[in-house]
Amino acid sequence: MRRVQLSAAEARRVALAAQGFALDRPSGKPDIRHFRRTIETLGLLQLDYVNVLMPAHFLVLWSRLGAYDRQQLERYFYDKGECIEQWAHEASLLPASSWSLLESRRQSFEMHKNNPLRTLRNRKRYLDNVLKQVQRDGAVTAGDLPPAVGPKRKPGDWHRSIPRWALEYHFARGSLLVRKRLPNFQRVFDFPERILAAKHLSQSVSREDAHRELLRKAAAAFGVATLRDLADYYRMVPRDVAPLLQDLVDDHSLIEVRVEGWDEPGYLSSSARFPRQIKGASLLSPFDPVVWFRPRAERLFDFHYRIEIYVSAAKRRWGYYVLPFRVGDRIVARVDLKADRHARQLLVLHAHGEDGSDRDSDCQRLATELHALKDWLTLESLRVTRGNGFSRQLASVI
Predict the structure, then answer these.
(1) Is a pLDDT exceeding 60 seen at residue 157?
(2) pTM, to two decimals
(3) For 60-125, what is the HEC assignment?
């Protein structure tokens, strides 16, 4: 039967199922098959290397798979030829098959007005010489390139060298691609034809067809979503892609639906599943697709979420690096976590239960999840700061 209306609870379950949360975590050690399935399910993985706890994209996989071998995951990302880094939803890892879908984005890339390359003397020669060096010597890091004098750094500026700006320019334009990441997360760049299979390089897709396919992929990853949700997944402009939604409705890739509590029309993917319940519990990365578009998180879970890394300590409400905690199809708590690698402790600096949560049950399940995270991070102990009733109860069951 064709669905035309969803309850709020159905929308939550559809959304979480589309993100892989209808499946149990693997009973054995996750392997390349699980990595491949997760990346294909999500469509992309936003990269973030803030290392207060663990780089956020590794947590996205852990939320779905549990404890896995991170070195094995990175070999899959960079050695198998199945994944690429590209600008998609910010800097992201994607299936290599998405290369052609982002061609128009690479072609239309322009330097930001504050890019120091704009003021670099002999800029074209410098950029051309970067490519000549890659051609002659092979893959490079920013440290392999000749230095160049850029504009004077202002107080508070985020430092990035001219060689790094040059590599990122060529990366954004598609002249270079990330071959691998070093242990310090530094990128190693090479020509796409040395990394990607010919079938990906030879495929050409029009801008309109690419946007249509990216919308379809976003819809499959979200299950049910608004126009703004879908556009945000691959960082497209809603007004630009709005006319393409009707094409997807006409070919039955999407079904327009009404969702309880939503002010905008919803679009249900033809691949959406309707589980009767979502089981399990998981901590979510701040950059997990379930919560990365904050208006959607509020609509689905009645969960107001903001990153407070750039908020002064005195003005933070929840903490520095706060992870939502999901139980079933609800977000029931949030915890501010830090890995103290010197003391080998997982620190719970703040913990807050959401309104209506079952504190006894949720604290028990959160404690179990925190212990699992501690073990995966090879830390030895857990320490909870007892700042409120919820955190005191959590500490009592740790």
Answers:
(1) no
(2) 0.92
(3) HHHHHHCCCCHHHHHHHHHHCCCEEEEEECEEEEEEHHHCHHHHHHHHCCCCCCCCHHHHCCCHHH
